[in-house]
């Protein structure tokens, strides 16, 4: 790769400090309770004892033995956490705090540091319309810093978005079950079948990232819109209330359809926005807008799988 520019190294250090602080002060215990508890493997059966959870009874063994027996599980030694990050051209858009792609980097770093704190392995897959970069899962702080450098330094060749190809590639390179975070603005189609397959094998969590300006267009006059992935341009009159309403309705419909599709595929999702508006608004003005939704997701999931 050659020498990494000093500015990239500074950004790596800034993000490391920021995300490690969040891991220690905000997400302490959340990651462990949500994911470690799900990484269980069968160990043995033993006779039922008073106080055992009846849901753990092995009815087949109990029928053969003529007495209730329960399954015992042990926690897997480690988990594999895969960060699947959309590096397409539409990530270079943001009108509030940062670009969507910049937010994806920070969230990926936060998840990566949470993983190594629990001695898990972390890997990275970056994609556009094609597979751009794959970093095999490993443990340790130095490995996570390498992942972070790739997220900041790597320059993708493509601009489009092919989620289906990213998930197919993941299936080829991952031997065992993993916790997979898919960070994208989901400006793509044709990935539903592949996602269903991936969700059956892995613990797949979608993280749709949007920007407020993609949901609401302000009245600022004539504006030329350009598709960051195709280069297509369109001149619109934002003073026209009919256009603004159609824009808002279309955006809202696309968002709701995405969340409905994900639920239908049994894929958990964490919808995020680069801006502070709506339910993602931070409790403190300096707090990143993704903190509150992530904490809420971890807590809800911990209750579900308790």
Description:
With 306 residues, the protein is α/β, with parallel strands linked by helices. The protein folds into two domains: 6-35 and 78-304, 3-Layer(aba) Sandwich (Rossmann fold), CATH 3.40.50; 40-75, no CATH class. The protein contains nine helices and eleven strands. It has helices at residues 6-25, 30-35, 59-65, 100-117, 141-153, 163-173, 192-201, 241-264, 291-304, and strands at 40-47, 69-75, 80-86, 121-127, 131-138, 179-184, 203-210, 222-226, 233-237, 268-269, 272-273. The strands form three sheets. Strands 3, 4, 5, 6, 7, 10 and 11 form a seven-stranded mixed β-sheet that branches. The protein has a two-stranded antiparallel ribbon with strand order 1-2. Helix 6 (163-173) runs parallel beside helix 7 (192-201). The longest helix is centred in the last third of the chain and has 24 residues, at 241-264.
């Amino acid at each position: 790769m050659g020498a990494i520019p000093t500015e990239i190294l500074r950004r790596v250090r800034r993000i490391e400090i920021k995300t490690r602080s969040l891991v220690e002060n905000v997400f302490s215990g959340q990651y462990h309770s949500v994911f470690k508890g799900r990484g269980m493997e069968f160990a043995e059966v033993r006779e039922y004892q008073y106080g055992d959870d009846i849901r753990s009874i092995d009815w087949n063994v109990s029928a053969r033995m003529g007495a209730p027996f329960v399954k015992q599980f042990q926690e897997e030694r480690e988990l594999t956490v895969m960060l699947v990050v959309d590096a397409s051209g539409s990530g270079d858009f943001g009108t509030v705090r940062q670009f969507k792609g910049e937010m994806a980097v920070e969230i990926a770093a936060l998840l990566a540091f949470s993983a190594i704190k629990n001695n898990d392995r972390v890997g990275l897959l970056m994609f556009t319309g094609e597979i751009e970069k794959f970093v095999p899962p490993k443990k340790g702080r130095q490995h996570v810093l390498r992942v972070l450098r790739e997220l900041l330094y790597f320059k993708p060749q493509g601009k489009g978005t092919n989620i289906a190809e990213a998930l197919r590639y993941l299936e080829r390179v991952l031997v065992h079950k993993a916790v997979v975070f898919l960070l994208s603005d989901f400006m793509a189609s044709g990935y539903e079948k592949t996602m269903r397959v991936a969700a059956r094998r892995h613990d797949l969590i979608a993280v749709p990232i949007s920007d407020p300006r993609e949901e609401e267009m302000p009245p600022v006059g004539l504006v030329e819109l350009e598709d960051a992935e195709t280069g297509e341009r369109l001149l619109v009159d934002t003073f026209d209330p009919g256009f603004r309403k159609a824009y808002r309705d279309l955006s809202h419909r696309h968002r709701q359809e995405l969340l409905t599709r994900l639920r239908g595929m049994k894929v958990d999702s964490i919808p995020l926005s680069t801006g502070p508006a709506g339910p993602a608004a931070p409790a403190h003005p300096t707090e990143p807008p993704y903190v509150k939704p992530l904490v809420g997701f971890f807590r809800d999931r911990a209750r579900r799988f308790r």
